[in-house]
UniProtKB/TrEMBL annotation:
Record's protein name: SprT family zinc-dependent metalloprotease
A Pfam family this chain is assigned to: SprT-like
Domain SprT-like: start-end pairs: 7-158
Keywords: Hydrolase, Metalloprotease, Protease
PANTHER family: PROTEIN SPRT
Gene Ontology MF terms in the entry: metallopeptidase activity
Any single biological process term in GO: proteolysis
SMART domains: SprT
Annotated transmembrane regions: none
Source organism superkingdom: Bacteria
Entry-linked InterPro entries: SprT-like_domain
Length: 164
């Protein structure tokens, strides 16, 4: 776990404790998050998960905004309970009042999508390319059949693939 990330999480908790004049339970912090989300707060598990790729690519803003955003969810939950909206006024109060940050709901980090292989299936219809995922291609190998919606013929693997 990068030391800067843990330090920022702790700093956010210390700011909240100073602001609200009460202690808060510290979460488990994990870098096991992939995909488009920069961070996720699991309220009932008291767990923060962060995306290591987005952290590496956007370190300064990530530490400033994303970490505070996720910690604010835990603080709001500990202060106000479970009946609040995720980005409601309680969470916004913490973002503005405690961290002096804009209460942005979403990040604007560039997301690098993984490339995926598509398996090209066809039917007798003109210009009929049906790109199947690896999972669907495997189902066909196990005996599953897919039909063209237009001509109702079984789609057949062309032997071609493409990477998207």
């Amino acid at each position: 776990m990068p030391e800067q990330l843990n330090t920022r999480v702790e700093d956010c908790f210390l700011l909240a404790e100073s602001f609200f004049k009460r202690p808060f339970k510290r979460p488990v912090v994990s870098l096991k998050l992939r995909g488009q989300k920069a961070g996720v707060a699991h309220l009932y598990e008291n767990l923060l998960r962060f995306n290591p790729q987005l952290y590496r690519e956007n370190t300064e803003d990530f530490l400033k905004q994303t970490v505070a955003h996720e910690v604010a969810h835990l603080i709001a939950h500990q202060l106000f309970g479970e009946r609040i909206q995720p980005h409601g006024e309680e969470w916004q109060l913490i973002m503005r009042g405690v961290y002096e940050l804009p209460p942005n709901r979403c990040h604007t980090y560039a997301i690098k999508r993984r490339s995926v292989t598509r398996y090209i299936y066809r039917c007798p219809c003109a210009e009929s390319d049906f790109p199947f995922s690896a999972q669907r291609h495997k189902l066909v190998a196990q005996g599953r059949r897919y039909l063209c919606r237009r001509c109702r013929h079984t789609l057949v693997y062309s032997g071609e693939t493409r990477v998207e």
